[in-house]
Amino acid sequence: MSCIIRKWKREDAKELCYCINDLRVLNNMTDRIPYPYHIEDAYVYIDDVLASDETKLFAFAIEYKGHITGSIAVIRQDDINRRSRKIGYYLGHDYWGQGIMSEAVKQIFQYVFKHSDIERIFAAPFDYNPASCRVLEKCGFEKEGILRKNGFKNGEFHDMIMYSLIK
């Protein structure tokens, strides 16, 4: 299997909408993403990412067999955490369970460590998302602990599990 991570293109908007416009996907993500997700939302996201400063944000489309299957990004933290980045990712439901995300996570952390001064990448998936935890563990991330009632999603508090990877 071989997926690639690459810069977004405006013509990716339709497939982006297809992947993200699914509550099974959105229930594991930030509330900043609207539902339903419209083509205009995709264009705004893609334009913002393309205009962003790479010293603060690395954001890529995940492509598999010629199709956009999801997104992956790492966001630089600030102040005393400026040498850390938070990783976020999602995959369209049709592509779950195929090893695509594990491959994309490996590609992005190799890219980040090679092209920046970042020493630590971290993630904190919801406790109800064991698939995301498995992806991180397969990629060498270590579990640091539980962030109790750290996330409020769909009207309920949830624990989040902190993982990190050190350069």
UniProtKB/TrEMBL annotation:
Residues 3-167 form the N-acetyltransferase domain. Keywords: Acyltransferase, Transferase. InterPro entries: Acyl_CoA_acyltransferase (IPR016181), GNAT_dom (IPR000182), N-acetyltransferase (IPR051531). PANTHER family: [RIBOSOMAL PROTEIN US5]-ALANINE N-ACETYLTRANSFERASE, GNAT FAMILY, PUTATIVE (AFU_ORTHOLOGUE AFUA_3G00765)-RELATED-RELATED. Belongs to the acetyltransferase family. RimJ subfamily. This is GNAT family N-acetyltransferase. It comes from Allocoprobacillus halotolerans.
